[in-house]
Predict the structure.
Amino acid sequence: MTILVTGGAGFIGSNFVLDWLSHAVTRDEPVVNLDALTYAGNLQNLASLQGDARHTFVKGDIGDRQLLDALLAQHRPRAVVHFAAESHVDRSIHGPGAFMKTNVEGTFTLLEAVRGHWSALDDVAKAAFRFHHVSTDEVYGSLAPDAPAFTETHTYEPNSPYSASKAASDHLVRAWHHTYGLPVVTTNCSNNYGPYHFPEKLIPLMIVNALAGKPLPIYGDGQQVRDWLYVSDHCSGIRAVLAGGRLGETYNIGGWNEKTNKEIVLTVCALLDELRPSAQGPYSRLITYVTDRPGHDRRYAIDARKIESELGWRPAETFETGIRKTVQWYLSNADWVANVQSGGYRDWLNTNYKTR
Ligand code: NAD
Ligand code: TYD
């Protein structure tokens, strides 16, 4: 048996592949990893799998139907776990086209290829097959400060080009189940953090900027709330839903860790003060308030009771243990950080922060 993972060279996808191939229950099942290696994809994340016959990496686009058909015919996966996406809200504001192309059209092409493959399976293989769509809590929109956390039945109210494109992909996946019977499950997870997180996102950006003595840019008043989950807990949640989730259902994944952005930045600063003190004084001196993100969602929060009660899933990390591991990982992996800070990365910092 084999699974096909899309986007397995990105932040969560690479953590998932590494987790899958080391976890006692799944480690013997090979992974075919299809990734276009955009700016966010990085084979260095998978360096520990070099020469490992259980991992086949294929550089390619989920929008390439011919490639998808060939891969599905050759490897005959019993499941597809779909991570590949454009994932950064600020980039979606500066250039929404790539988000429509990959997240909407790409998911459509993938669904059609998978439907073709699945339709030709025998009845037993057909029933066992899974298409697992990895999505986000951002599709639900923004919560008022005192509103209950997102359940799976919350209305879809996406506010950014990113979340709108993910919402569209969720709807396609749902429709392919209802119309064609494709055996799908969808997970909507809160903000992840941990190793291999590209330093355009809040937590890794704050770590690498602080270490470089650069400003720590907080958008607006810094009182926006996100619900943070350590990436390996997202991976275990996906494994649980892939193994036991009910067909056509969606499951929210989150760790009950609501924090304001300001709290996050202060926590990162305090950990760096402890682990790598600066001669210039506390890292919080670098905090700078900058122009807010247009359409900035005020609060996300996940109600994770469905996955907890149906599948017995629980996060292994608290925010305190996860954020400490994360800061330590960035301190121990300066080479990885240096390698991802290419010319393209510097161009992005100019685009996003120069005019703020
Ligand atoms: P990421 O940007 O780090 O990685 C995305 C990966 O997809 C990259 O390796 C990239 O090369 C690849 N990719 C992009 N376009 C492609 C294409 N057309 N064909 C093939 N590969 C392509 O993203 P991430 O943070 O790892 O997120 C993975 C998935 O999880 C996304 O679907 C995202 O919406 C979802 N998600 C992310 C978070 C989060 O906090 N990061 C939370 C919930 C859900
Ligand atoms: P981000 O990591 O981009 O994730 P998302 O927008 O998908 O939640 O941002 C997390 C929060 O941090 C979000 O409210 C925007 C804020 N933020 C800043 O304040 N400064 C920054 O430089 C970045 C990248 C994000």
Summary: The longest strand covers residues 130-136. Residues 88-89, 191, 201-202, 205, 217-219, 224, 226, 261, 293 surround thymidine-5'-diphosphate (ligand 2) (CB under 6 Å).
